[in-house]
Amino acid sequence: MRIATYNINGVNRRLENLLSWLEVVRPDVVCLQELKAETSAFPIEAIEAVGYGAVWQGQRSWNGVAILARGATPVLTRRALPSDRYDEQARYIEAAVNGILFASLYAPNGNPRPGPKFDYKLAWMKRLIDHAGGLVAAGVPVVLAGDYNIVPTDDDIYPGHREADNALLQPESRVTFERLLSQGWGDSLRAVYPQGPLWTFWGYLRHRWRDDKGMRLDHLLLSPSLQPRLAAAGVSREARAAEGASDHAPVWIELAPVRKAPAATSGPSRSRSTARSRGRKRPMTERARR
């Protein structure tokens, strides 16, 4: 199963980019962010025409999230985080596809800081952490996918940057991401590529794309039960290079099928050494590179 997260930065403005990418890559599930379209303006007919069903939550001019599934319609479970009763910003949607729960999230940017926008960012992340902890405790197989608007470490931004005051890099922001991981969530990209640049975002200004001055803002976090299935991961940089592209590139992972236990036989049993050899687990990063 190939799963992707993609901040499309205007689903109608960049519809041709999205459709072309879907037809070439054919991911099984896609989590979209920054639709920048109210719910009634979501281009469902065009998306269905290339073989995808969808659920979405729109907002005029800002925010907006969606989950797409190839050959299926995701089963909607939630349109907002708990405790979001009075929050009108469309930043979270959750749905089930083929026995896995997917969340598409667009966390607040938080700039400028200090101020109410940064306070809102931290409060929103606290709600996400509280909800995510409940999912882990329930043992649900979950993919938390989206634009977290957090640069987790200094290795996740280009060297020599001048972004020290940016809300995305603040210690308070990074602590929220660390709190998520401490619940047992796995950072898919870093599981496959523990070191090195993994940019997912390049701003439009100051030749950021041309000079490869990027940040890693888009993350696919896996619940504990899914982490052994991680087979591959990457960033679709070619989508960022396309004409009229979003300032984000799609980030993708592949999950291996669930392995079924071998059927019992009445024949001779395997040797103990063979059984031990075949049953030995590999480190997560090694399995992911296969």
TrEMBL record:
One of its GO terms (molecular function) is endonuclease activity. Residues 257-290 are annotated as: Disordered. Residues 4-248 form the Endonuclease/exonuclease/phosphatase domain. It is an enzyme of class 3 (hydrolase). Probably binds two magnesium or manganese ions per subunit. It comes from the Bacteria. PROSITE patterns: AP_NUCLEASE_F1_1, AP_NUCLEASE_F1_4. Residues 261-272 have a biased composition (Low complexity). The record marks 248 as: Interaction with DNA substrate. InterPro entries: AP_endonuc_1, AP_endonuclease_F1_BS, Endo/exonu/phosph_ase_sf, Endo/exonuclease/phosphatase, ExoIII-like. The active site is at 106, 147 (proton donor/acceptor), 248 (proton acceptor). Its EC number is 3.1.11.2. This is Exodeoxyribonuclease III. It comes from Brevundimonas goettingensis. The lineage of its organism: Bacteria, Pseudomonadati, Pseudomonadota, Alphaproteobacteria, Caulobacterales.
